[in-house]
Amino acid sequence: MTDRNLKIVCVCGARPNFMKIAPIVDALRTCKNVETILVHTGQHYDRAMSQLFFEELGIPEPDVNLEVGSGSHAVQTGLIMQLFEPVCLEHKPDWLIVVGDVNSTIACAMVAVKLGIKVAHVEAGLRSFDRAMPEEINRLLTDSISDLLLVSEPSGVENLRREGVAQEKVHLVGNVMIDTLLHSKERASESKILGELGVKKGAYAVVTLHRPSNVDDAETFASILKALKVIAEELAIVFPMHPRSRANLTKLGLDDAAKAANVKIVDPLGYLDFLKLTMDAAMVLTDSGGIQEETTILGVPCLTLRENTERPITITEGTNRLTDCDTEAILQAYGEIRESPPCGTAPALWDGHAAERIVKILVESC
Ligand code: UD1
Prior knowledge:
Blueprint: E1 6-12, H1 15-29, E2 34-40, H2 51-57, E3 64-65, H3 73-91, E4 95-99, H4 103-114, E5 118-124, H5 134-145, E6 148-151, H6 154-162, E7 170-172, H7 176-189, H8 193-197, E8 204-208, H9 212-215, H10 218-231, E9 236-240, H11 243-251, E10 263-266, H12 271-279, E11 283-286, H13 290-298, E12 302-304, H14 313-316, E13 320-322, H15 327-339, H16 354-364
Parallel strand pairs: 1-2, 1-4, 2-3, 4-5, 5-6, 6-7, 8-9, 8-11, 9-10, 11-12, 12-13
The structure holds uridine-diphosphate-N-acetylglucosamine (UD1).
């Protein structure tokens, strides 16, 4: 490492980024000779989607907030680029760290490489092989321009090898989202959310849905809601609803289809309440990427309402299963999981120390 201070800009923008950036910022701040600048793009901005996570995870106030807000992919990505460029020009960092696969990830990575700033991508190499997913495009592009590819599971290393990426750029480091989970589990166990929602440990399912492929299309969203109604006849459902899904319910005329005695639709929850709700659930039904990983570590059966996953280790080693999104397929997969719940093991390096490994690699590469 050089004697002079190393300047590193860390970027976060959307809800799943916050759990990933928290342990990295933490590990960087313990390094001597490293100056860390935290940039929030403002892709997510509601208190429940952003500020609450900073408070609960002890993430320092961002040094810069670009406050880009919502918009089409082109508008959001373009605006982040436009506003992030002057930040890079002002701070002239040695490295940019981006996490995950959201629009903020690719937008900031693209700005940095064009200014000659090196980019480290955390959660590199994951592939759903489904280019209809906006995140898949973000992953492919970010990986192809990053200097350091920090990977959470072996499939990512293999994908990057197949794509011809120089192997010295690629490091299997484990999962930073699981760092946060393991560090927060004890605090989460004190949450009173079960009582507040009137559900009992092991006697309910948690549902989350926000993928455009599931909630932007009336027919698909309706067929999922229909399955949830049937499931709720034997297992209470708690459904913390993403703002996108909430807006679509009304827009697509599905408000009534979502109403059922045993289905509780609530606003998005904070990290600790959601973690507690997940740990104590009988099962989770989701289309999230991160929740597939969290349930694997918690040993909670997870039914993912997608045709594919970019996180295959959650199936081969964890508690995750996939299902198509028509009503019959969901009910069949649900029945199978209830009858024989998958029990998994923790994937290698999902041990709470991924961020430390990342920072070590980064500092040693300078
Ligand atoms: C984004 C990510 C997705 C990630 C998800 C987690 C992209 C392409 N997608 O999807 O990978 O899994 O975050 O939530 O980056 N909204 C609010 N308040 C907010 C944020 C959003 O009301 O704080 C509403 C707005 O109506 C907005 C919509 O949600 O238009 C979608 O937000 P956006 O950031 O575009 O994408 P997400 O669906 O959240």
